[in-house]
């Protein structure tokens, strides 16, 4: 008989714990906790579409070289401001100087052969005009002259190629910016494509974010948005600059670029933000969005809950499914209805089943 009672009571206890938090025993003489309730939930009729993003520089580059050689000098440090054309790093150019000498020697050799072929061509041309040379002799000399001229041109282009390589031995800044990181040090071997340092431009900041396929059609270039910087607690105006038409390489999320209006020295690349889009869906009806203050939420591990009022003025911890957050409020995807009351604040410690008195 005891086993039967236990088998009935256990599911009931588990069901109670699943519906809310851990229920504590309420003493008979417990003083009700004074609470403030919200009778209406902050809602939006689809006019607000929130997403998370990060601030990044409009211009950014990983600086590398096209030649292989030892790094002889790195002239900048992380955080340093640089100007366009300023020398950033130097690569050993010993091999290039040897190639340059070979190219110049090749030009001298090709030039001597060209000058000789040119004189022969001019001489045989006069002889042919005087009918002292045959057409075959003139054709042979002409071919040798053209080949010598082509060889000289090729030697000069070889030298130009070597001279162009010297620009990759002296690495300069492609734009005004700030050095954000260095990946090598003096004495390291540089190779083509290997990043040596990274540079972010001073031309402005932008926000990079993504939107799901259900939301991307409501966003277009030129749309004004609000950007909330979480770490600063400030809100900035922005404009949608780019909307990608493909989510092939982004896991089903469509990239969106937003330009920030104005400048603020407190803004830095890498800061996380929340973006509010005035979504304009034309192909479907947007459901209302439920927003509750973050201060009313209860966090327990990976779970998010909110206190509601049950029978007998007792607090009931309701687990909810939370969505995006913006300006101190969180979207409730499920677990709370728009007209349902919930606890905004309490004058004492709340727990599941606690007696409450409504202010």
Report on the structure:
The structure is a single chain. Helices cover 25% and strands 36% of the residues. The chain has three helices and 23 strands. The chain has helices spanning 2-19, 94-129, 135-169, and strands at residues 33-38, 42-44, 49-57, 60-63, 69-74, 81-82, 87-91, 170-172, 177-182, 189-190, 197-201, 205-211, 224-229, 234-243, 254-260, 272-277, 289-293, 297-300, 303-309, 315-326, 329-334, 342-346, 356-358. The protein has a six-stranded antiparallel beta sheet, with no helix packed on it. α2 (94-129) runs antiparallel to α3 (135-169).
Mean pLDDT comes to: 82
- How many helix segments? 3
Distance between the termini: 48 Å
| Strand order in the sheet with the most strands | 2-17-21-20-19-18
Features:
single chain, 359 residues, alpha+beta, 6-stranded antiparallel β-barrel, 25% helix
List the helices and strands and how they pair.
Elements: H1 2-19, E1 33-38, E2 42-44, E3 49-57, E4 60-63, E5 69-74, E6 81-82, E7 87-91, H2 94-129, H3 135-169, E8 170-172, E9 177-182, E10 189-190, E11 197-201, E12 205-211, E13 224-229, E14 234-243, E15 254-260, E16 272-277, E17 289-293, E18 297-300, E19 303-309, E20 315-326, E21 329-334, E22 342-346, E23 356-358
Parallel strand pairs: 1-23
Antiparallel strand pairs: 1-22, 2-17, 3-12, 3-16, 4-11, 5-7, 5-10, 6-9, 7-8, 9-11, 12-15, 13-14, 13-16, 14-15, 17-21, 18-19, 19-20, 20-21
């Amino acid at each position: 008989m005891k086993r039967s009672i236990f088998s009935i009571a256990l599911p009931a206890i588990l069901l109670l714990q699943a519906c809310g938090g851990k229920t504590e025993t309420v003493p008979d003489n417990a003083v009700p906790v004074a609470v403030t309730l919200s009778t209406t939930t902050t809602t939006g009729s689809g006019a607000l579409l929130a997403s998370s993003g990060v601030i990044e520089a409009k211009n950014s580059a990983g600086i590398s070289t096209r030649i292989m050689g030892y790094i002889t000098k790195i002239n900048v440090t992380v955080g340093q401001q640089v100007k366009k054309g300023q020398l950033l790093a130097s690569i050993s150019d010993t091999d290039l100087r040897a190639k340059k000498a070979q190219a110049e020697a090749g030009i001298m050799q090709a030039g001597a052969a060209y000058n000789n072929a040119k004189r022969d061509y001019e001489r045989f041309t006069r002889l042919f005009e005087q009918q002292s040379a045959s057409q075959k002799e003139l054709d042979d000399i002409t071919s040798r002259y053209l080949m010598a001229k082509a060889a000289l041109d090729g030697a000069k282009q070889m030298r130009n190629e070597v001279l162009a390589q010297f620009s990759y031995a002296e690495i300069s800044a492609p734009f005004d910016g700030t050095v954000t990181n260095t990946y090598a040090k003096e004495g390291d071997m540089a190779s083509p494509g290997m990043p040596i340092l990274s540079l972010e431009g001073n031309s402005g900041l932008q926000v990079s974010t993504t939107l799901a396929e259900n939301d991307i059609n409501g966003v277009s270039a030129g749309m004004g948005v609000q950007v909330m910087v979480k770490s600063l607690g400030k809100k900035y105006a922005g404009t949608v600059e780019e909307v990608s038409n493909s989510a092939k390489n982004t896991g089903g999320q469509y990239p969106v670029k937003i330009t920030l209006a104005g400048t603020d020295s407190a803004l830095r690349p890498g800061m996380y933000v929340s973006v509010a889009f005035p979504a304009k869906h034309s192909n479907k009806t947007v459901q209302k969005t439920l927003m509750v203050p973050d201060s009313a939420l209860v966090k327990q591990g990976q779970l998010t809950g909110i206190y509601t009022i049950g029978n007998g003025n007792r607090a009931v911890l309701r687990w909810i499914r939370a969505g995006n957050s913006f300006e101190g409020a969180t979207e409730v995807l499920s677990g709370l209805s728009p007209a349902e009351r919930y606890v905004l604040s309490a004058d004492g410690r709340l727990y599941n089943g606690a007696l409450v008195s409504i202010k």
